[in-house]
Structure formats: C-alpha cells, structure tokens
Amino acid sequence: MVKSYMRRPRLLLVFLAAGFVILADDFPYHHPPKEVEEVLNAAPTPVPSVSPQHDSIIFLQPVRYPPITEVAQPMLRLGGIRIDTNTNGLHLAPYYLSFALKRLSDGADLHIATPKDAKLGAPVWSPNGKQFAFINTTQHGIELWIGSSSTGETHKIDGVNINSVRVDRGGGLGDAVEWLGDNRTLIVSLVPSGRGGAAPPELAIPKGPHVQESLGHAGPAPTFEDLLSNPHDEDLFDYYATAQLAYLDVASSKLTPLGKPGIFTTVRPSPDQKHLLVGWLHKPYSYQLPATDFPQEVQVWDREGKSEYKVASLPLAEHVPLAGVRTGPRSYQWLPDKSATLTWVEALDGGDPREKPPHRDRIVLLGAPFSGQPTEVFQTKERYRGMQPLANGKALVEDYERVQRVLRTIEIDLDKPNATGRVIFTRNERDAYHDPGTPVSKTSPDGRRQLIQTGDEIYLSGEGATPAGDKPFLDRFNLATGKAERLFQSGSQYEEIVAMLDDSGERLLIRRESPADSPNYYIRSGQDSKALTHFPNPTPQTLGIKKQLVTYKRADGVPLSFTLYLPPDYKAGTRLPAVVWAYPYEFSDASTAGQVTGHAAQSFTQLNYHQMIVLHGYALIDDAAMPIIGDAETVNNTYLDQLVMDAQAAVDKAVEMGVADRDRVGVFGHSYGAFMTANLLAHSNLFHAAVAESGAYNRTLTPFGFQTERRTFWEAPDVYTKMSPFWFADKIKAPILLTHGEADDNTGTFPIQSERLYAAIRGNGGTVRLVMLPAEAHGYRAKETIEHVLYEEIAWFDKYLKSSE
Length: 805
Hints:
Largest sheet: 8 strands, mixed
Strand content: 35-45%
Shape: globular
Structural class: mainly beta
C-alpha cells in the first residue's frame, strides 16, 4: 500500500450528557472567535535574505498557514521523507508569495517579477551577489528561475525540472541548486529525463510475504515513522529520490550532465572548483531505519564526474548504539583557505557513548591530488560537534560531554598534527547566561565561506540571555587573550542582529521591535541607525495586551519564570480564568535550570496560535519553566515529583499576583508538552481542564528511549511505566481535549497514542474529547486546521473554566 494520506477525514463527537459516543463523518471545519481569527490570519512580517557582499536585500513574504488543499495533496512517506508526487519535491516545503529587493548602495527599491500564483523558494545568491537563483513550485513540477540584483529582472530556465528530494540535509533548495565560485555556473539536481513515465505500480497480487530478520546483533532504534515497509516502497523511493546532477551555464542556459543518476546525499564543490565531494545511497535498504542510515558511498570526483578518491563505503547503520554515532568517516568539510583539502571525523570508541576511551573522535585531513593517506590532526576527548576553520591553518573545534552536558570550544592547529589544543570556551550546554555566541562568517566573491577574522580577532554574535530576558549582542573577541569587546547589545527595545554589513562590526542590519512597535529593519552605523523598512502593524488588535516577565521559585528553591499575558481590556485586580502553556526540559543543575531565556516580554506582540487565547479573555501563563534536574543518565527517576512541583509553583505565583482564579486554571501543551499535560492531570489536582496536542502517552511504545531518556524500557521499566499517563488513565478526572494529526511524522508520537489514551480515559469514565486532524503531521500547518484547533480549544476551556464564572 502506498504510504500517502489515505485516512477518511473523521472527527469524534462526544455527547457527554447522554453518555453516547457518535462518529460523525464530514464534520466541518469551524472558525474561532472573530477577534482570534483576524489576528491569526494577519500577514507575517517579511523576512530578509542578505546578499553575500551585503549590498542588496530581498524581503520575502512568507505564508503563515497554507490552505488545507495544499496540506492534503497526495504524498508518499518513504524512508523518513515525505514526497509530493505531483512535483517530485518535498511535501509542504516552505515557500514565499513574493520578493521585494532593496539596494543598500543607493536605497533603491526594485520590483522583482515572479510567476503568477507563485510558490517561491528562498533565493540562493551567487557568491558575488549579482545574481540569485530561486525555484517556483507549480502543480506539476519545480521550475528554476534566475534574477539580477542590479535590475530585479528575472527569467525562467526552460527545460529544467528540479528534483528537490535530497536525503541528507532535508532536500531544501540549498541542496538542489548550488553556485560555483565562477558566479555563472550552477550545479542542479534534476528529475532524470530518461526515468520513464508513471511511477512503479503496486502489484495487485503479491509475489509473497514481506520478511525481516535479525541474526542476534543488537539493533536498537527509535520509533521512526514514514519508513519503507515492502519492495514496492523501495521501488517508489528509487523512482522519486533518484536525481541527475548537471552543470547549468546561467548565461547560455546550457545543461551538462554530471555523472550518472543517483540518490545523492552530498554534493559540495571544493574551494578551487576543480573537485566535488559526492555522496549517494544504495541498497540494501532498511524497514527499521530512515534513509539517512542507508548504505552510502562518499567519493571525491573531478570536474567531469570521474572518481578520484573513495572517502567512505558506509554500510547500513543498523548497529549504532543508542545516542551513538556511525563508525567510519562523517562530518565532511572542505577547508576554505585551501584549494582542495578535505577533512572528516571518525569515531575512536566504536560510536558508543557508553564506552570510556581516552578520546572519542579523531579529525583527519587529505588534500589534492588525494593520492596519499589521510593525516590525523587532532583527537577530541569527547564527542565531536563541529569545526570552524580559522586563518593561518587553525580551527575552532567543539566537543560535547553528554553526562554533565559540557560543551568545549578548542583552538587547534591543523598544520601541527596532534598538537595540544587550547580550550577557548567551556560551559554547560544549558547555561545560556554564559553562552559566548557564535562566530560570524562571510562569503567571498569566489564562494569561500570563512569566519570574519583580523589577526587574532573574530566576531561573536549571540542571544545574550540575561535575568531580564534576551539582549542580543555582537562582540569582537581576541583568541590570544580571551578578551571580548562588546560592540553592540540590544537596549530598551528588542534588537536582533540580522547581518554584519562590514568586517569591522560598525555597520549592522538589525531587526527592531517593542511591545508597541511592530518589527522593522534598520541600518546601524556606530550609535546611529536609519530605518530601512516601514512595515505597518499587522495586528493592531494586540496593542492593548499586557506582557510581563514573572520570576518566582519552586518549593525546593529552584528559580523559575514565565511570561504573563493579560487581555487588552484587563482591569487590575481582576482574577481571570488562566491557562498554562509549557514544555519540560532537562538540566544538570539548578543554576542553569533557573535561567531566563527568550524575549517575549520585550518584543512586539505577534501572537502564535497557542497565544491567541489571551484575546478571548484568558490570562496566559506562557512558557512556564518546567525543569527536570538531575544526572543525565537518571534524571527521569524524579520526573513526576519535579513536574508537579514546577506546575504548583507557576499556579501559586499567578494566584498570588491576583490575576488567576485557582479554581479556573487549565493547562495545555504540544508533543512533550502534551505528555506533560496528561501527566499533570494524572498526578495532581492543580488543573480543571486541559488540552493535549499530538502527544505520546504510553512509553512502552517507545521502548528504545524518548526525549532525553537514555535507558531502554528493559533497563528502566519502572521509569517507563510511571512516566506513562496511559497507565494512570483512571486517575485523569479533569476534562481533557486530545488533538492529533492523522499523518503525524514525529518519532514516537503515532496517532494511536492519542486514540488509545482517549479509549482508556473514556473506558474509565473520564471526560475526554478526541479530534483527529486530516492530513496533518506533527506540527499543524493548514489554515483551516489551525482555525479549527483554536475553535476546539477555546470552546473546551470556555465550557470547563469560564462556565464557573
């Protein structure tokens, strides 16, 4: 059976007074209250795409929620990928409605002509910024267009049918279309012209059973979704994922095939453009693992597609330990300051995080003509996380110790193999207050991506978490002395750095907003700033909403926080029905657990869908901190106790402030937040109504780990059962609304999780409603779906929280 959305659109209607459960087909989508719907459907603020040389910006108009007609388009669910069978692209790939170009040199606004009824991919700039490529998705394929940043003129490249189904990095346009450093040639991924007509049909009469076998070797795997399940799925995967690489001369529109068709995972040109790193998948495939774990060949090719060096022949990754990595080469990277030197990483511990070797990974490099053996340049003590090459043959390497969650940034010398590295930064992964930021990079006119560096100085940009909320910053950091000079930090208004416009950090493109001012973009030069855009307030209805960062402590002294939203017409001293929205996270210690992150209280009130409830007369206790603190290996042993303590503290604080009525407090959450919600109802009496979206409620159905749990069910059966609200369905007495996408694609959150919890609560006499959302995945996308979910949630809370007014 083809794995597409095939389930009948059906919602369960529960008539509680009569005690009957009636299945109603074709139950229509409903609309939320008018004040909510108007804000929900307001156009979002355009987002910028800055040219590599920082002389032009294209403002992209995103689509907030596509219509259900798009969400419900036919798709295949193969190898962990969702494929649109009409376009040979990804199902529900993000797109934009329009482009608007602004030249920074003279401030000119240029009209960009785009196709009628456009569904545009983000622009891919040529390295010199003079041209940009973009795709347009039609009903029957994906077109390639080229635009000029000097004139705004665009044109379609005839005869090009893009295949954007790329496995390794998600299949986005950046994988299907890539510029070479000559600024006139693209490498494109095409639907093979000779693949034939229709996709392989499914046999009406099977040839025989579908068999899987394991021969005694442990192969733990998470509960992935959308996997292959039979030979016909394999044929379909081959048909849609196979692509033909080609060079496209933009000036002449000439296409030159590159190599043979394949299911490509990686295509990366070397800095001198004379070599290509190419990876592709091959059989045997797996019915237990996604395509990213299929056998893979990785080679260096010359410009004509002839193999120069075999980097790796990776077998099916069926024996990778939980939370481990594949053995063999991984994390490939060309060094930008060399003509053609490739680096990669190999595990020294068998990829097993439970082993305790002196070093876990090693970094090797090999340069053209790729005739010798790779040179080992450094061994990381902990698991390799990434590398950023510096000037003068050095690099910043990050490794991660998983038990204490410690990140280290180490400066190494690539020209001195196995020389001792120098630790530049070290911190707990969750320690936002001491995050030094991320090095800022740029693209040279010939396509090399390098850090902005002068001598020992680089630039670091970060969120700037503080006890008062995020305050983004830019630092000039000296690698030799370890000293940072702050060049910019957000002030009373929330200002976010979009791009450095020069190599000194003096000119910045920033996005500025405040609770009263909608987001706009500014050019900042030193202490002066000039408005670049004047986008109007898209939601004037939200101006009266009151927001406040609230800090407090839970019973054991751990500091916590939430952002309080109050309706536009709120009168001081009024106790409102209130709802808590939250998502639990794990921490190693109380000091990091209590840190404040985010900037909701400082920024413009552009509500996301769960925040819309504040427009309907509720106090919203948003992003209430729900830390679970402990050793990474055993932190969930006290999950329930800490969760209830977190929730108790949030409710108590809202009641103490005089804004919430203790007898009219609800809770809701999505995914792990839905899991949290059900557990709070099963193990506390804090809440009088709840909504749980797309959760997993029976952890025995995710037996090889979930979230950050590192033990299997067989290693910690008590933890799995005690944390499963399904096992305590008879204790769930407060009314709970369950929603779930019928085409959920998230690991572990199968739709059956909500269906079985509904049956368990109903069977034990609880008050419960189940709404299954046709064609929706884990995150809800369709406009009609979002409107209906808000209708359901508001009606639910109105019935069980407001009815007691």
